[in-house]
Specification:
Blueprint lengths: L1 H14 L13 E8 L3 E8 L4 E9 L7 E11 L5 E9 L2 E5 L10
Antiparallel strand pairs: 1-2, 2-3, 3-4, 4-5, 5-6
């Protein structure tokens, strides 16, 4: 389970890595924070083009048979239409549960 936490955190950091110097029109990271521990992690990233992401995760039921990771986070970006889109989500033993004003919602019966 610790491997999963470290992998997710490192993946987030890799996505937030500063762009190469040769690409002048690419966005640059304007803020980057991370705290990775053996049983939890959190990170936050913002870029100059208006994108942002943050996430935190921890292990639930540590050391038990039903041990699992619980994650909550958000990301946002400015679409080609100039609108800022934001998604908040939870990912846990119940699956990935995104929410956003632009996402379709299952009709109620």
């Amino acid at each position: 389970m610790k491997f999963v936490i470290v992998f997710v955190a490192l993946f987030g950091l890799a996505l937030a890595a500063p762009p190469s110097q040769s690409a002048s029109k690419e966005a640059v990271v304007t803020r980057q924070d991370a705290d990775v521990g053996p049983e939890s992690y959190q990170y936050a990233v913002e870029t100059s083009d208006g994108k942002s992401a943050s996430e935190e995760g921890h292990i639930e039921n540590l050391g038990k048979e039903d041990e699992s990771i619980s994650v909550k986070g958000q990301f946002s970006y400015i679409g080609d239409d100039g609108v800022t889109y934001q998604v908040t989500y939870i990912a846990d033993k119940n699956g990935f549960q995104p929410q956003g004003a632009h996402l379709p919602v299952e009709p109620k019966l």
